[in-house]
Design a protein that fits this description.
The complex is a heterodimer of chains A (304) and B (239). With 304 residues, chain A is of the alpha+beta class. Chain A has 12 helices and 8 strands. Helices cover 49% and strands 11% of the residues of chain A. Chain A has a 6-stranded mixed β-sheet, sandwiched between helices. In chain A, strands 6-7 form a two-stranded antiparallel sheet. Classes of the chains: A alpha+beta (304), B mainly alpha (239). At the A-B interface, helix 1, helix 2, helix 3, helix 4 and helix 6 of A face helix 2, helix 3, helix 4, helix 7 and helix 8 of B.
Chain lengths: 304, 239
């Protein structure tokens, strides 16, 4: 601490006393030109900062103009043809089973933070950086996430993730979450590890899908039948398994039956009935008309 | 200077074609609205620490609502009527809309004795808008000339950069001290009590980080000083 530092500190201290109502504003007469400039910069900054809520987050322009006559004007102006953005939008829209919106990240640009687009995917706000100054897509795996994404998470706390994209054919990309940008304590050694990316570099659509599965998993684990290609479904196996279960249930009921006729006939069912019912289900899946289906069911019942 | 409320927004407004500039202007308008609607100055002047955390827009609009009104007013302003920069105009509109909101929120409320000393006869405002004398009409005392408004714009942009650097460069304790003193106006003693430090030590930490942030801000490519602005500022003056 130099004597000059001491003098500036004393003036700033007195200025803070003044702001707290404890004393008069300090005189700067005893300071040299450089000292005076430093003190004035600190004092004016302190005055200019007062009243600003450091935890507030400004509503986006889209939110401000929602429901106003300018809403559509904004839509028209923000979607100028841009090759990369359109490719990103196309990938996300084609493969993502949810609403996707994407627009230029002017809010970040305005405060000097690198971010090209904001994508609203499945109610998650992702920020997308397109990096062209790296040595190929695999360099994305060794980026420093704190430098790349730290300022974005700091300035825009509503960001669910930062996707860094290399503009090659597949839009290679890697996802960074807020915790990737922090130092962490590794177990079991207990050593402090620097920020690092933990996810693989993949095409954009896979990166976004995997990341969304991670941060907002869909809890329905069953795949819808219409989402499965027909060639991948073993309909014969499924039909025979269903027929087997149904016939075995009848056989068990027959063994417990009190009526002799039922006990004999139901317990006597077996492979021929299973095959016949399986074939019937397969034919029904293939498009058998209802009249034929009904007559075959009746024939099966008579034979049994 | 303020835009008329009867004007309709202009879909082809030049600021809508320059999204980056409009975003920067909105950031500054939001800061200006917070500063006008935050009763810090009046509270600090009265030594009323409790009032520091109250918002002037009691039970009504939020700064977000005021920003929406101000944004529409800005985007309704005909470019041909512009005699200053959009930035200066935006600061003026934001302040006036914030003052209007305070009027609506506080008219009819009973002022405290401290408020009553400086309040005019015609209107009851719980929150003082002026830092001037008791005879001064607070509504008229805010700077209105474009140079002052442009200086406010630059100062707000600088504060925005400092806010970003605060999140990037400071640890949790330094950040809390900086936010409490620099933005929220807490006294060093108050902050010291929260953190288990002396007020003097809090002051030392604040001064250290404030200088560190200012140095870092000067290296930031988006940081502009008033003199840089004057040398090559936005040239929107038409009339």
């Amino acid at each position: 601490m130099t004597e000059s530092d001491d003098r500036v500190d004393a003036v700033v201290e007195a200025f803070m006393d003044h702001l707290e109502g404890l004393s008069e504003a300090p005189a700067l007469d005893d300071l040299g030109a450089d000292e005076r400039a430093r003190a004035e910069a600190l004092m004016s900054s302190l005055e200019a900062g007062r009243g600003i809520d450091p935890y507030a987050s400004r509503p986006s322009l889209e939110q401000l103009l929602a429901g106003t006559p300018l809403e559509t004007a904004l839509d028209a102006s923000r979607f100028n043809a841009d090759d990369t953005r359109e490719r990103i939008r196309e990938q996300l829209t084609l493969y993502a089973p949810f609403h996707v919106d994407i627009w230029p990240d002017d809010a970040a640009s305005a405060i000097g933070i690198d971010s090209d687009f904001v994508a609203l995917v499945s109610a998650q706000r992702l920020r997308i950086q397109v990096l062209t100054d790296v040595d190929g897509p695999f360099a994305l795996a060794s980026l420093d996430p704190a430098a790349v994404a730290g300022p974005l998470f700091g300035a825009f706390p509503d960001t669910a993730g930062v996707i860094v994209v290399y503009p090659d054919d597949g839009l290679s990309s890697v996802a960074i979450d807020p915790f990737d940008t922090e130092h962490c304590i590794e177990t079991p050694a207990g050593t402090v590890a620097p920020p690092a990316t933990h996810r693989p570099v993949m095409p954009l659509v896979d990166t976004v899908r995997a990341y969304l599965d991670e941060i907002a998993p869909a809890l329905d684990t069953t795949a819808a039948l219409d989402a499965l290609p027909a060639a991948e479904v073993d309909t014969a196996g499924i039909a025979r398994a269903a027929a087997t279960r149904a016939v075995q249930r009848v056989i068990l009921d027959g063994r417990r039956a009190k009526i002799d006729a039922k006990q004999v006939t139901w317990s006597d069912l077996g492979e021929p009935e299973i095959d016949a019912i399986g074939d019937l289900v397969l034919d029904a899946i293939a498009g058998l008309d209802s009249a034929t289906l009904e007559s075959r069911i009746n024939a099966l019942a008579d034979a049994a | 200077m303020t835009a008329s409320g009867s004007r309709r927004p202009l879909p082809d407004h030049p600021l809508l074609q320059d999204r980056e500039r409009l975003e920067a202007i909105l950031d500054v308008m939001y800061i200006q609205i917070q500063k006008v609607t935050h009763p810090f100055r009046a509270a600090a002047g009265r030594g009323d620490a409790g009032a520091r955390y109250e918002h002037a827009l009691v039970g009504g609009e939020s700064p977000d609502d005021v920003l929406q009104t101000a944004t529409l007013a800005l985007l309704s302003y005909p470019p041909l009527h512009l005699t200053t920069t959009w930035e200066a105009l935006a600061v003026g509109i934001a302040r006036n809309k914030a003052k209007d909101a305070i009027r609506r929120a506080t008219t009819g409320r009973t002022p405290s004795s401290a408020d009553r000393e400086g309040a005019g006869d015609s209107e009851t405002n719980v929150v003082h808008l002026s830092t001037g004398g008791a005879d001064q009409n607070p509504i008229d005392s805010l700077p209105a000339d474009s140079d002052t408004l442009e200086a406010e714009f630059i100062a707000s942009r600088q504060q925005q950069i400092l806010l970003r650097l605060t999140r990037e460069l400071l640890d949790d304790r330094e950040r809390q001290i900086f936010f409490e003193i620099h933005h929220l106006g807490s006294s060093r003693a108050e902050v010291g009590r929260k953190l288990g430090l002396t007020g003097q030590r809090v002051g030392q930490i604040y001064r250290k980080v404030a200088e560190q942030l200012l140095d870092a801000a000067r290296d930031d490519p988006t940081f502009r000083t008033l003199s840089e602005f004057a040398a090559g500022g936005w040239d929107d003056r038409i009339g």
